[in-house]
Amino acid sequence: MSTNTSTTYQMLINGQLVDGASTFDVINPATKEVLAKAPQASVEQLNEAVASAKSAFPVWSALTHDERKEKLLALADAIEANGGELIETLSKEQGKPIKGFFDMGAGFEFGGTLAWARATCGYDLKPETVQEDDNLKIEIHRKPLGVVGSITPWNYPLMISIWHVIPALLAGNTVVLKPSEMTPLTVLKFAEIAKDILPTGVLNIVSGSGEIGAAITAHPDISKVVFTGSTPTGRAIMRSSADNLKRLTLELGGNDAGIVLADADIEAIAPKIFATSFINNGQTCAALKRLYVHESVHDKLCDELVKLATSVKTGNGLEEDSDFGPLQNEKQLNIVKELAEDAKAKGAKFLTGGEVVDDTGFFYPITLVTDITDGARLVDEEQFGPILPIIKFTDIEEVIQRANADDNGLGGSVWSTDIDNAQKIASRLECGSAWVNHHGAIQPNAPFGGVKQSGFGSEFGKVGLEEFTSIQTVHVHKA
Ligand code: NAD
């Protein structure tokens, strides 16, 4: 393996950029080469970061909303000014193309980062009056919680970090953030940018393995953990957070079903279904992961999806014509391969893909699988990769039951030209977000979160901001 470590990456602790106790390799998934060395924090360094956040909290939380907002908008401007480097680093460490299919690559994640940062700053949690009369005034105030621990995954490293950090800080908390050890570089660059804008200790960024994440969740001076990642890690975090009753927002895995009704306009919806199933190479929490199609339109939709799948290129994200990049890591590639092998063993038909054709990186082709049903691992488990099971159904009541039989409950969708009927069916799906004629489309003003094993708590909008506060009810008796 050759190494390209010309850029140094440091952590942000107590207002200073610092090295870790040691370093770990960050791999470029398109080449399998070492892209950079990243700092591995020690537990002592994490403790310093938490102590710094704790001491910064009284001053930061006492600022007015507008003062905090001004700093955070300045931070968004500084992120924007570093766009070129951030987008390229994101592509190299995560694998996603700079532009990509439907413009949904690194530039898309970067655009989302800015959009969410700025839109979140538009929300303010003013006190609400519940009652006011001659004798009594009752108000609801929203108070920050203290130090928030943020733990992020490798699929959208920069954007998800912003989803955590901006509302936490805007609400008056201070933050210790740990990015995924698979993709720490963009977030460490963000640390460098934030150092010159935010007061000392308000935001600390430490990189390292899951052990540092676990130390965050067990830390007695952290009041809340916001976590985006897998369901097993979410469970571990919940257990570890019990001792000091940490507040939690857990955005976990999904296995979203999409249901295509007999009256759907297949030519119109096929590109949208393709885009939302394979966004970020399928490595998206709320991607469409199980496609249920009415038997009368099944073959037509398969034909349309095959046309799309055979027209795209999977390659190194830095190559301009790559629509899709590699899987982010070998472990995820192996999960995809295993699910494909299980589907083959169960007699499924592969319309495209299904075999690695280029192993210079963690590449897997866009793969469409049919003649498959519930019970196959590809249907029952989250694939988090570029392989989609297409499942025939005949009866709508039965397919709703099958969609809801999954333990996860992140998103779901219904596709039809009869909007009212589709909305009725969508409302019966057990999931945090339900779409009609779309899937996975999220925006900063619409709450997003899971039910069942996909977690709890909401992000985005006013509701998302409230998650970083506790309520203080103030009763003022006037006499
Ligand atoms: P992961 O759970 O393996 O890792 C996520 C983060 O948790 C990393 O920073 C990791 O270091 C840390 N971690 C690992 N063990 C820990 C522990 N015991 N305590 C505390 N932190 C620990 O998840 P991943 O593989 O990076 O991400 C993929 C998963 O995330 C998928 O299941 C996907 O569906 C889910 N996801 C969900 C959403 C959502 O909004 N619901 C968004 C993106 C990804």
In words, what does this structure look like?
It is a single chain. It contains 15 helices and 22 strands. With 479 residues, it is α/β, with parallel strands linked by helices. Strands 14-15-16-13-12-18-19 form a 7-stranded mixed β-sheet, sandwiched between helices. The chain has a 6-stranded mixed β-sheet with strand order 9-8-7-10-11-21, with helices on both faces. Helix 12 links the parallel strand 15 and strand 16 (387-393). The longest helix has 20 residues, at 43-62. The N and C termini lie far apart (77 Å). Bound molecules: nicotinamide-adenine-dinucleotide (NAD). Residues 151-155, 178, 180-181, 209-210, 213-214, 217, 228-230, 233, 236-237, 251-254, 285, 382, 384, 410, 450 line the site of nicotinamide-adenine-dinucleotide.
Secondary-structure blueprint:
Elements: E1 11-13, E2 16-18, E3 22-28, E4 33-40, H1 43-62, H2 65-81, H3 83-94, H4 106-120, E5 128-132, E6 136-144, E7 147-151, H5 157-170, E8 174-178, H6 185-195, E9 203-205, H7 210-218, E10 224-228, H8 231-240, E11 247-251, E12 257-260, H9 266-278, E13 290-294, H10 295-309, H11 330-345, E14 349-352, E15 367-370, H12 377-380, E16 387-393, H13 396-404, E17 408-409, E18 411-415, H14 419-427, E19 433-436, E20 451-452, E21 455-456, H15 461-466, E22 469-477
Parallel strand pairs: 7-8, 7-10, 8-9, 10-11, 12-13, 12-18, 13-16, 15-16, 18-19
Antiparallel strand pairs: 1-2, 3-4, 5-6, 6-22, 11-21, 14-15, 17-20
Helix pairs in contact: 2-4, 3-4, 3-6, 4-5, 9-10
Bound molecules: nicotinamide-adenine-dinucleotide.
